[in-house]
Amino acid sequence: MAVPYIPDPHNNQLLPLGVDPSNSRPITLDLDLYPHLLIAGGTGSGVSSALRLITAHTVAVGGTVDVIDPRRVSLAEFEDVPGVRITKDPAAFAAQIEAFHAEMQRRFEQSASGPRRILAVDDLTASLAWLRRSEGPALRNTVRLLGEVAFAGRAAGMHLALGRVDRGTLRRMGDAALQDAVTVLLLGRTTRMTAQHLGVDPQLRRTYPGAAVLKTPGTTGRQIALSFLTPEQARTVASRAPIAD
Fold it and tell me: How far is 242 from 4, CA to CA, in rounded Å?
């Protein structure tokens, strides 16, 4: 099911994620109410595609995105696009997360506002695994900072979009309490245990490319057919230019 990207021109905080497959009605995520997104799914499930959509939309409506890309190729279409900063060097991952957290703290301390800013991590598990191997002391602090952003970032306009989050990382970030603060997007084929751990109804099926389950805090999820942008379309959207039919 190919679902086009159709933003709401009057409500920039609404992220157009896709449609309800049962009735084709648009499904949006209000980032003012649900500021953080955990994207669970294995290789080939569509995690990078979801982050591509989030990045393109955020920049198109005046926000900025800090991308951490441990695979170094996932979101290459945003190279040199104003408003997108891509970090590919594993040695810089911890510093990038620290800088993001510091900006949140600055906004709080100075009562300062700023454009919506998203930290998009294509593969959080791989990123933290690198820190575990090479910079062990930095790992615990990095996870702590992510947890603090998850619990406090909304008030500062600072958001997380974390791809490929494993159970161990969730537990270190806050686990059960974190589920009350974040939205979950479950992609591809995952185990029943994974769905249950994320608070998602395991009976909700994902049986075709682009099928997902969207779980906002306080719910057990709903099925969704995800919107899709090609890399070329995403770059065009991020450049605030209309997509040709």
Answer: 13
pLDDT tens for 29-54 read 999 999 999 998 877 888 999 999 99
- Domain positions in the chain are 22-238
- The shares of helix, strand and coil residues in the chain, as percent rounded to the nearest 5, are 40, 20, 40
Going 199 to 205 to 209 to 214, the CA torsion angle's sign is: negative
E strands, the chain, are: 14-19, 26-30, 37-40, 64-68, 84-87, 117-121, 158-163, 183-187, 211-215, 222-226
Assign domain 22-238 to its CATH architecture: 3-Layer(aba) Sandwich (3.40)
Sheet holding 26-30, edge to edge: 26-30, 14-19, 222-226, 211-215, 183-187, 37-40, 158-163, 117-121, 64-68, 84-87
Q: What are the pLDDT digits (tens) for 45-86?
A: 889 999 999 999 999 999 999 999 988 778 999 999 999 999
Instruction: Report the run of H or E that residue 129 belongs to, with start and end.
Output: helix 124-134
Place of tokens 């800088």: 99
Residue 167 CB-density burial (10 A; 0-12 exposed, 13-18 middle, 19+ buried) = middle
CA dist 76 and 101 (Å) reads: 24
Question: What Å distances lie between residue 16 and 123, 163, 240, CA to CA?
Answer: 22, 18, 16
Instruction: Give the DSSP letter of residue 227.
Output: B
Q: Report CA Rg, the chain.
A: 17
